[in-house]
Design a protein that fits this description.
The complex is a heterotrimer of chains A (208), B (279) and C (210).
Chain A: H1 7-20, H2 28-62, H3 68-77, H4 91-121, H5 130-149, H6 164-203
Helix pairs in contact in A: 1-2, 1-6, 2-3, 5-6
Chain B: H1 3-7, H2 12-28, H3 39-49, E1 56-62, H4 68-84, E2 88-93, H5 98-109, H6 111-115, E3 123-128, H7 133-141, H8 143-146, H9 160-163, E4 173-178, H10 181-195, E5 198-203, H11 205-216, E6 222-225, H12 226-236, H13 242-278
Parallel strand pairs in B: 1-2, 1-4, 2-3, 4-5, 5-6
Helix pairs in contact in B: 2-13, 3-12, 4-5, 4-12, 7-10, 12-13
Chain C: H1 6-24, H2 28-48, H3 51-66, H4 72-91, H5 99-118, H6 120-130, H7 137-153, H8 156-160, H9 163-199
The chains are: A mainly alpha (208), B alpha/beta (279), C mainly alpha (210).
Chain lengths: 208, 279, 210
């Protein structure tokens, strides 16, 4: 494949190299790409915001649902955040967003993060095979001890006869965080590989 | 500087240059190593495979440019399977850049060309909907009350696929692929917990550990573990793409990281031992 | 009642309680009210998307007008990019669905966004070389699973010795499954308690300065 003649690809290749260059040393090309990115991201947010306001707000007003004017007023009130005197007006829409966000997530968190997890743990430890039983025991110990590590309101939890529990919990958490770190390495290499493919395939045409 | 200390004294530029080479070389000359499919990706595949033809799937593109290199291939492979199964797909985006990923993904899947799918009848894209969990709850609660137009501005009353879909009760499966922890939790909360829907999720590998409890407790029926999950899906769906190509890059680059870790630790313990002996 | 403080707290409480009631009850009045709240939530979130841009205009506009810093041309470039995206997005009338908008996105935004996050692989490699040490039992535990997960994640090693893959799968099943479930329960309890405190007005940080 020949080198790309598409200006889009050339611009994208330039920015890919410029954005990578920071890993080696701070430089003017990186600064240029950084500012391009921030400006583009903010511009994109505005475009998507206006589209959403049109599709999910204005569309209702067009259907005669005049109550939607209220949300437009609340939306404008958000921008009073930057006003010295009337900044407090932005608290009304923020209060709405916080109330909605909190209500919508805690109602289900009780079920998903608490009840379902306890049900899953409070199962017989014996499995179909000896290895399954062994795994169930490890999981059970992991859950109980990791949870005990976060109990700070009862002093006896971290010393005396129960002191071993949070200690084992700490070890289990560290082992799990190690797995998380191992996967993070894969995430980043997997992502950069995409840029390498772009440079070698789409731009330079070296690989198929 | 002792011999041990010299081991970790390579200049930054050399180390990073080696990493870059470890990624470029296998891209130029792939090894084609065998792939071992993980159970989490297999469960995603089996969950989708078990759906009867014509079932409605709600699919969230919850990532943008940052996640595209690893999650784009996962989405492409997942959609190939869904179109092959003749499922009806309602796509939406909870990520601000999700709607920009849609054309990139569809240019690779080519539903019309490859599967004879018709936009509006077999699949539709609602575009980006702001609000995270609010948007999820809105679409699942009463789709027609919240969404008035699809991505290009066409009224949803004119979309045949959406005529029979009012909300969660008409949706068989919720699938999402995201870079956001909130989005990932959000779909479990809003689709599984609130409506008891089957949910499958794809995410960056570094998020997998924190989402694992949902998979273990059956709240996620399948899980795509970043670029590894993407490669597994490409293998299972027999649509090899960029994720399988990345396997060789991962082999080289992660081996180099392992070497760095080993060298660093040998040097650390070497210095420590010689200091003790010096005392 | 203080309009600056008490009314927002009442709004938070009412909206939050309706959201919770929608989940636990089947009253049609609650369902209908919550549908409107969800729609408003989407629109308000959309309005909030412009807040960042306003702030950028304030900060970088000042830099350009003062011209004290040597990097003020970058500020001008940043705002120019912002304006170009808005003009192309709105000018076509098709927003993100237009070819022109997709062109500038794919040329200017996507490559930088994708590369910025991905280039963390370089820092991780350098960090692994310089910092990741098994100094004591705690760091050794973290180190040992990290090594085995990397070995299992790297296709080369399971190809040479398949048990590496199974060890990785076992770590995720038993070790990660157990510890993260404990963490998840803890985080869940914390989130619910914090949520309830917010709804009843005991957490007011979101209201900002007094």
């Amino acid at each position: 494949m020949p080198v790309s003649s598409d200006p889009l690809i050339w611009i994208a290749a330039f920015y890919t190299i410029a954005a990578t260059s920071y890993a080696f040393r701070d430089n003017i090309l990186f600064k240029f790409s950084e500012n391009t990115y921030i400006g583009a991201a903010a511009g994109h947010a505005i475009v998507m915001g206006i589209k959403n306001i049109r599709d999910y707000g204005w569309a209702h007003i067009m259907k005669g649902e005049m109550i939607y004017w209220v949300v437009f007023v609340l939306g404008v009130m958000l921008y009073f955040r930057f006003h010295r005197q009337y900044y407090w007006l932005y608290r009304y829409p923020i209060a709405f967003l916080v109330g909605n966000g909190v209500g919508i997530s805690i109602r289900a968190a009780i079920h998903s993060d608490f009840i379902k997890q306890i049900i899953e743990t409070a199962k017989p430890l014996t499995g179909a095979t000896a290895f399954d039983t062994f795994n169930n025991i490890i999981i059970f110990i992991g859950v109980i001890t990791a949870l005990s590590h976060f109990i700070f309101t009862y002093e006896g939890m971290h010393k005396g006869t129960l002191g071993w529990m949070p200690k084992v919990g700490r070890w289990m958490i560290l082992l799990a965080l190690g797995a998380s770190f191992g996967n993070t390495i894969m995430t980043r290499f997997g992502q950069y590989q995409g840029r390498i493919l772009f440079l070698l395939r789409d731009w330079l045409g070296i690989v198929a | 500087m002792s011999a041990w200390e010299k081991l970790t004294a390579l200049p930054r530029e050399i180390v990073l240059g080696l990493v870059l080479i470890a990624m470029i070389l296998p891209t130029l000359k792939p090894l084609g190593l065998p792939l071992m499919v993980g159970t989490m990706a297999k469960d995603w595949y089996d969950t989708v495979d078990a759906l009867p033809s014509g079932s409605v799937v709600l699919f969230d593109i919850g990532f943008g440019s940052g996640g595209y290199p690893s999650l784009g291939p996962a989405t492409i492979a997942a959609l190939h399977q869904m179109f092959e199964k003749d499922l009806k797909i309602i796509l939406m985006a909870t990520a601000l850049e999700g709607s920009m990923m849609y054309p990139l993904i569809m240019n690779k899947v080519k539903p019309e060309e490859n599967y004879g799918a018709v936009y509006g009848e077999d699949y539709v894209f609602l575009g980006y909907i702001a609000g995270g969990q609010t948007a999820m709850a809105g679409v699942l609660g009463d789709l027609h009350a919240i969404v008035s137009t699809e991505y290009t501005g066409k009224p949803i009353d004119q979309i045949p696929l959406l005529k029979g879909v009012e909300g969660a009760e008409d949706i068989s499966l919720v699938a999402y692929i995201t870079t956001s922890g909130d989005t990932s939790e959000g779909w479990v909360y809003q689709a599984y917990s609130a409506y008891g829907k089957d949910v499958v999720g794809g995410m960056l590998s570094m998020m997998t550990t924190s989402m694992k409890p949902y998979y273990d407790s059956g709240q996620l029926k399948g899980l795509l573990d970043g670029v590894k999950g993407a490669a597994d899906m490409e293998f299972l769906t027999r649509h090899p793409g960029d994720a399988i190509k990345s396997s060789d890059v991962l082999s080289f680059s992660q081996t180099l990281v392992l070497i760095f870790i080993i060298v660093g630790n040998i040097s650390y313990w070497g210095v420590k031992t010689s200091e003790k002996e010096g005392r | 009642m203080d309009a600056r403080r008490d009314i927002p707290l009442v709004i938070t409480f009412l909206v939050g309680v309706i959201a919770v009631m929608d989940y636990y009850t089947t009253f049609s009045a609650v369902k209908e009210t919550f549908t409107v709240i969800k729609n408003w939530g989407v629109v308000l979130n959309a309005f909030a998307l412009g807040l960042g841009a306003v702030n950028l205009f304030r900060v970088h506009g000042r830099r350009i007008s003062e011209r004290k810093r040597s990097d003020w041309p970058f500020s001008a470039w940043l705002l120019l990019m912002l304006v170009i995206f808005v003009l192309v997005g709105l000018g076509t009338g098709q927003f993100d669905a237009s070819d022109q908008y997709q062109w500038i996105y794919n040329a200017l935004y996507l490559p930088i966004g994708a590369t910025m996050y991905a280039s963390l692989c370089f820092y991780m490699s350098y960090g692994a070389y310089k910092i990741l040490r098994a100094r004591n039992l705690d760091s050794f535990l973290l180190f040992v699973t990290a090594i085995f997960v990397v070995l299992g994640n790297t296709p080369l090693f399971p190809a040479l010795f398949p048990p590496f893959f199974h060890i990785r799968e076992w770590i995720f099943k038993a070790v990660v499954g157990g510890a993260y479930r404990g963490i998840r329960i803890g985080v869940g309890i914390g989130a619910v308690v914090l949520g309830i405190r917010t709804l009843i007005g005991m957490e007011t940080g979101y209201l900002g300065r007094r």
